[in-house]
Write a structure and sequence with these properties.
With about 100 residues, this protein is mostly beta strands. The protein is built from 1 helix and 7 strands. The chain is elongated and about 45 Å long.
């Protein structure tokens, strides 16, 4: 029950910013910052983010990293994509493999 309460409070306060870094050709990387303004030591439940990835990323693996550390490698076969990220006020960087 405690985790559910923390999740609901985080979700209520969540603010997301997304910034695409354009390259040649297409999108070079995407930065996603998820903030909730709450104490990260206590409120650290991942929130699900739904987004459309760039068309040229479909079927290509991409890496999710934060603070220079690789967190996950994903591939989506459609533009629709989904990530679970902690709202810790630091940018997550999504970058496709060459």
């Amino acid at each position: 029950m405690k985790d559910i309460t923390l999740y609901v409070r985080e979700r209520e306060n969540a603010v997301i910013t997304v910034e695409a870094v354009e390259g040649s050709p297409g999108t070079e990387s995407i930065e996603i910052t998820l903030s909730d303004g709450l104490d990260n030591g206590r409120f650290n439940q991942p929130l699900t983010i739904l987004f459309d990835q760039p068309t040229d990323w479909v079927g290509r693996p991409f890496t999710v990293s934060q603070d220079g550390e690789s967190l996950d490698e994903l591939v989506f076969d459609t533009e629709a994509a989904m990530l679970s990220l902690k709202p810790n006020e630091r940018p997550y960087v999504l970058r496709p493999h060459p």
